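Figure 3 (text version): structure tokens given as input.
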């Protein structure tokens, strides 16, 4: 340790996504390579001398206590803990966070040093990992509300790689084995399944950490929700969700010193007939065990919906990932003018 392979891999992974702004301190971290990155980890972040850095990832992060503030973080996985190096602008973004962080008033505003807050979740405190639909994000749950956060990778490969690395590191933990399961009789085994609600697919790791994946019903529920938002759909059964992706809606802000674009996180859902944008709650569902009441907002809230038949053209930018798409719709006042005629003429 560190092996050549690890040095090469963390150097390749140490790239900030272009679409979200970061502070000077995180830009410094993103400029480190190879051995310098490992030395930085041991000199500034690691809490134990013998822990090893295993994986590095850049991701947007949401905290359970502050679900409306998405912040860029450098996520470092070691053999002892998961470290989240946070953009320092996050601390001042929300007045409720002063209690959350217990940050003292520092006199470093005019200092040449650039500080970052580091949120630490020890692997021994980890209880479960919920993987979102199509691996677009995952939620890490510890033992209290302060220890729940969601990584919005918006990328199935990043999610899959992190989960694999996390499982490998958890396998090194020495934990007491789970108690032997109690043999169930025939009636209790089959009687409990008549609730009508299928449980999510759970994989219990040897370290007793649960990895929870969405089941088919979650897509069914989402399809039903989308169908409710579609007026005049003759048959809800025919609705298929073709694409689910976490994206950003670009809002152009004029009048500032230089015109800027603000990015609003949105869930884009494409069906065979419509294009929808939803505001999704990525962190409150499924409810943590200690939650005493349901969240204040629904998991999915419709932000915009347009019919594909009204789509006039799609404009594509020439920049590299993330790709910008502009959908131009031809909005007719009386949208359903031709609908009945078409159905009568061509049948089903």
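Below: residues designed for each position.
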């Amino acid at each position: 340790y560190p092996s050549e392979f690890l040095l090469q891999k963390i150097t390749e992974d140490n790239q900030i996504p272009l679409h979200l702004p970061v502070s000077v301190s995180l830009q410094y971290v993103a400029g480190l390579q190879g051995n310098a990155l490992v030395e930085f980890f041991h000199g500034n972040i690691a809490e134990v001398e013998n822990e090893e850095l295993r994986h590095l990832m850049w991701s947007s992060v949401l905290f359970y206590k502050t679900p409306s503030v998405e912040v860029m973080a450098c996520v470092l996985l070691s053999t002892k803990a998961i470290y989240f190096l946070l953009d320092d602008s996050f601390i001042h973004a929300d007045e409720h966070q002063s209690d959350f962080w217990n940050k003292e008033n520092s006199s470093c505003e005019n200092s040449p040093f650039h500080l970052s807050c580091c949120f630490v979740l020890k692997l021994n405190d980890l209880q479960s990992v919920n993987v979102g639909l199509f691996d677009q994000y995952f939620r890490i749950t510890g033992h209290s509300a302060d220890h729940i956060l969601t990584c919005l990778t918006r990328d199935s490969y990043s999610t899959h790689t992190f989960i694999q690395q996390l499982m490998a590191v958890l396998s090194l933990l020495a934990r007491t084995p789970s108690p032997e399961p109690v043999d169930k009789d025939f009636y209790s085994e089959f009687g409990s399944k008549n609730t009508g609600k299928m449980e999510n697919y759970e994989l219990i790791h040897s370290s007793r950490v649960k990895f929870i994946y969405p089941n088919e019903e979650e897509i069914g529920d989402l399809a039903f929700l989308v169908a409710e938002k579609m007026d005049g759909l003759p048959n809800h059964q025919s609705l298929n969700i073709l694409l689910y992706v976490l994206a950003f809606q670009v809002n152009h802000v004029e009048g500032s010193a230089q015109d800027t674009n603000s990015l609003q996180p949105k869930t884009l859902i494409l069906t065979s007939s419509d294009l929808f944008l939803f505001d999704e709650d990525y962190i409150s569902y499924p409810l943590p065990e200690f939650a005493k009441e349901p969240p204040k907002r629904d998991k999915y809230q419709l932000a915009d919906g347009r019919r594909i038949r009204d789509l006039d053209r799609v404009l594509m930018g020439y920049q590299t990932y993330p790709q910008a798409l502009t959908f131009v719709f031809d909005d007719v006042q009386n949208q359903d003018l031709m609908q009945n005629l078409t159905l009568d003429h061509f049948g089903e």
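Residues 191-198, 337-343 have pLDDT under 50 and may be disordered.
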